[in-house]
TrEMBL record:
Catalyzes the reversible phosphorylation of S-methyl-5'-thioadenosine (MTA) to adenine and 5-methylthioribose-1-phosphate. Involved in the breakdown of MTA, a major by-product of polyamine biosynthesis. Responsible for the first step in the methionine salvage pathway after MTA has been generated from S-adenosylmethionine. Has broad substrate specificity with 6-aminopurine nucleosides as preferred substrates. This is S-methyl-5'-thioadenosine phosphorylase. Signal peptide: none annotated. The gene is mtnP. Homohexamer. Dimer of a homotrimer. Pathway: Amino-acid biosynthesis; L-methionine biosynthesis via salvage pathway; S-methyl-5-thio-alpha-D-ribose 1-phosphate from S-methyl-5'-thioadenosine (phosphorylase route): step 1/1. It holds the Pfam family PNP_UDP_1. It comes from the Bacteria. NCBIfam families: MTAP. It comes from Amycolatopsis melonis.
Amino acid sequence: MATNSVEAEIGIIGGSGLYDFPGLGNVSEFRLSTPFGNPSDVVTVGDLNGRRVAFLARHGRHHQHSPSSLPVAANIYALKYLGVREVISVSAVGSLREHLRPGELVVPDQLVDFTRGRRSTFFDRGLVAHLPFAEPFCPRLREQVLASVGSVTDVTSHDSGTYLCIEGPQFSTRAEAGVNRALGMDVIGMTAAPEAKLAREAGLCLATIALVTDYDCWRENEEPVTAAMVAEVMRRNVAAVRKAILHFTRSPRGERTCGCQDALAHAIMSNAASMSDGDRDRLDLLAGPYLS
Ligand SMILES: [Zn+2]
């Protein structure tokens, strides 16, 4: 499945509490198989304000995949295959800062990856590539997502923050929360890495809308986070995320001046001429234009 089928332009990866996207018209469901395994679930493609949008529940529609076993490479590959160019990734996060309150939205601008042993590249064999990742979220898409998040009047949003991605699935100890705060982290979650890395490798623009569900466990006089707490705050606030995405799809989609689509152009170290036909086929959708 190396040929791009151009079914959709905008991808939405829904996190905890966002398992579907009601209101899509002219819906098709895609159960895809990729060279990197099967995505978390079917990808639902439909019309939203005249845009073709591909929705994927990150953990599956029944929340059956844990953060550590998410098929992230397959998810990103599937969106790329369907023609997606811009991805809005929605995540539930804990807050490590007093001013980032539960129920509020953060559009992070930085990412720290504390995960261990997850597949974080498409290019682990057959082809070696080292991409710049100083700006882990697409700056251009972030601005547009910020405008959309800002248009939702009944929720407070924050225009920057460092997202710390931990392995999980347990939440942090108090000692870890203290260390993470001292290190300058703002919000904590379990999924932004390697998702943002793989999206960049695939030439997709990606921005994250992080919904704060709790204060992790660092705050005095506050109950430490529980899964039930996360689910309840998500249930109450997911409507604001949907509103922001609706606004985003109504906004004009401009030129991709950010360079994400060609991030791979100057990153390949290998001599493509020595690649096997199998590796070439496996990576054609992602790296084909740069292998001639
Ligand atoms: Zn971009």
